[in-house]
Amino acid sequence: MLPIHALTAFLHRVLLFSADPAPLSFRALPPQYAFQEDFVKKRVRDIIEHHLAPHDYNEDTLPHWIDQITTDTLEELHSHKKPYKYIVTCNIMQRTGAALHSAKSAWWDGVSDGSCTVLWPKRNAATTEAGVGSKTIICMVTVFAVAFYVN
Question: pTM score, two decimals?
Answer without folding.
Answer: 0.74
